[in-house]
Amino acid sequence: MKVTIDGIPIEVEPGTTILNAARQIGGDVVPPAMCYYSKLKDSGGKCRTCLVKVSKGSEKDPRPMPKLVASCRTTVMEGMEVQNITSPEVIEARKGIVEMLLVNHPLDCPICDQAGECDLQNLAFDHGAAKTRYEFDRRKFEKIDIGDNIQLHMTRCILCYRCVFVADQLTDHRIHGILNRGDHSEISTYIKHAVDNDFSGNMIDVCPVGALTDKTFRFKNRVWFTKSVEAHRDCDKCAGKVTLWYKGEDVLRVTGRKDVYGEVAEFICNTCRFDKKKTEDWVIEGPRKVPNTSVMNSNHYETLHPLPVVKTNLVLMEANKEQFERETRL
Ligand code: SF4
Ligand code: FES
Questions:
Q1: Nearest ligand atom owner, CA of 49
Q2: Tens-digit pLDDT profile for the chain (330 aa)?
C-alpha cells in the first residue's frame, strides 16, 4: 500500500500501522511512542503520544479523519496521507499530552536512575512547557520492592501497561495489572508474585520511565558516565545477547540490547541480567552504538534538527517557537 507521511511516500504491507510505516522511513517523521512496544502483543493505544493527523483517509475516500489518531493503532489505507511534524495541530496536541503525563510524574530526573535514557525526559525536552499550570496535590505512593532486584516507584508510572504485557506474555501467568480507575489507577502490588519468573527483569527494560528500576544498579552511576558494550554468553534460558554497562573495570548493570526506539532486540533472562556481572562471564563483541536520540550522545540537548520544511513554513515555525527559543537560549 502506498502511503505518504509528512510528504515522504513509502510502500508498506497491508495491515501495517502508521507508526510502523513511519519507522520504515525513519528519522524525524517517526512519532514518539511511550506505550507501544513492537515485541509485546497488543501494546499501544494508552499514552496518546503517537497522535498524528490523517489529512487524506485513502484513495477511495479522501476525506481527512475528523480527529487526530493514535498512529500505533491505526492501519494504513491505500493512498493515505499522514502528517506528523508537518502538522501544527499535532505538535500542539503533543505538547498537551506531555503536560498531562507530567501532571503526576515527579521531576525526579536528578536522582532518577532512568535519567539519560528516559522516553518521557526526552519527550518533555522536545515538547514540554517551561512551567506547569497544575496547582493541586500530586499522587503519592510508597516505593514497593518487587522481589530482590526490582523497585517500583508508582509515582513515576505513566500507566503504559508495558510491564503488564511482559508479565502476561513472558512469565508463566499474569498475577498483576492496573487496579482502580482514573486518577486512582496504579500498578497492583500483585506484580510481586511475578518476580520468581526468570523473565521478570524485562519489566525494567520496557518501562519507558523510571518507575521500575534495577535495584542492583540503583544510585550506582549516571548512565552517561558509563561505557556500554555488546556482549553474549551461552545461556540455556535466553539468547544471552546483552549490553554491559561498565564503569572502569566493573560491570554495573546488564540490560537487553535496545534499538533506536528504545525497544530490546531480544528479552533476556534474570540470570544474565542480575547474576552475571563479571567480564569473564561474557564474550565481548564491541562498543554499543549509541543512538543519536539519546542524551548519552553528546550535544543531544544542545542541537535542534528541524526538517527543512519546518524552517521554511511560517505556521510550523510558529508551532515550534518554544523549541527555537530554547535552542537560542542554549
Ligand atoms: S511501571 Fe513502567 S512499564 Fe509499568 S505501566 Fe508504569 S510506566 Fe509502564
Ligand atoms: S504509543 Fe500509541 S498510544 Fe502510546
A1: 2
A2: 999 999 999 999 999 999 999 999 988 899 999 999 999 999 999 999 999 999 999 999 999 999 999 999 999 999 999 999 999 999 999 999 999 999 888 888 888 999 888 999 888 888 888 788 888 888 888 888 877 788 888 889 999 999 888 888 887 765 666 777 777 777 765 555 556 678 889 999 999 999 999 999 988 888 888 889 999 999 999 999 999 999 988 999 999 999 888 899 999 999 999 999 999 999 999 888 776 555 655 555 555 666 666 677 777 777 667 767 766 665
Q: Which amino acid is at 2?
A: K
Q: What is the pTM of this model?
A: 0.80
Task: Tell me phi and psi for residue 130, to 5 degrees.
Answer: -70, -25
Given the CA of residue 209, which atom of ligand 1 is nearest to it? 7
Instruction: Provide the CB-side half-sphere exposure for 301 (13 A, CA).
Output: 10
- Name the residue of 34, 68, 98, 119 whose CB sits within 8 Å of the most ligand 2 atoms, as the mutation to test its pocket: 34
Neighbours of 238 (CB within 10 A): 20
| Amino acid making up residue 271 | T
Whether 47 lines ligand 2, by a CB cut-off of 6 Å, is yes
CATH fold for domain 2-86:
Ubiquitin-like (UB roll) (3.10.20)
Closest residue (by CA) to atom 8 of ligand 1? 160
- What's the CATH number of domain 104-219, 3.30.70.100, 3.30.70.20, 3.30.300.30, 3.40.190.10? 3.30.70.20
